[in-house]
Amino acid sequence: MKRACVGMTVGTFVVAATFWFGFSAQGASWQEEPAAASASKALFNSRCALCHGPDGHGSDMGKTLKVKDLSSKEVQSLSNDDLIQVISAGKNNMPPFKDSLKKEEISGLVRYLRTLK
Ligand code: HEC
C-alpha cells in the first residue's frame, strides 16, 4: 500500500512536470486564443482583484497593504520573468501563488497584466 502511494506521488509529479515544461515551450501562442485571455481575466478577478482591483489600480484593502498600481510604469517596466517571480513567490504583503496556480495560469496573468497599462 505504501509503495503504491509513493508510485502515485511520483507519477503525479511527472505528469505535472511534463505539463509545466510543455506549456512554457509553446507559451507564445496564447494571444490567438481569446478563450484563454478571458480565462486569465476571470482568474485575475477571482484571485487578484481583492487587493489589486479589477483594473489593477488597487482596491481599498490593497491600498492599506501598499499595493502598487499594476498599470503603472513602475510595474509595467518589470520583465515577464520578474512578474512571474513575484506572482509565484509573493513579495512583502503579496501572497505567493505558486502552490495554488499552475505555471500557465501565472503566465496568462502576466499577459493579462500587460493589457492593463
Ligand atoms: C492579499 C492581497 C494581494 C493579492 C490577493 C494579490 N496581490 Fe499582488 N501585490 C500585493 C501587494 C501588497 C503588493 C506590493 C508588494 C510590494 O512591493 O511591497 C503586490 C504587488 C504585485 C505586483 C507588483 C510587483 C512588484 O515588484 O512591483 C504584481 C505584478 C502583482 N502584485 C500581481 C498580482 C497578481 C497577478 C495577483 C493574483 C494572482 C495578486 N497580485 C494578488 C497584494 C496582493
TrEMBL record:
Residues 35-117 form the Cytochrome c domain. Gene3D superfamilies: Cytochrome c-like domain. Keywords: Heme, Iron, Metal-binding. Pfam families: Cytochrome_CBB3. GO terms for molecular function: electron transfer activity; heme binding; metal ion binding. InterPro entries: Cyt_c-like_dom, Cyt_c-like_dom_sf. The keyword Iron applies. It comes from the Bacteria. This is Cbb3-type cytochrome c oxidase subunit III.
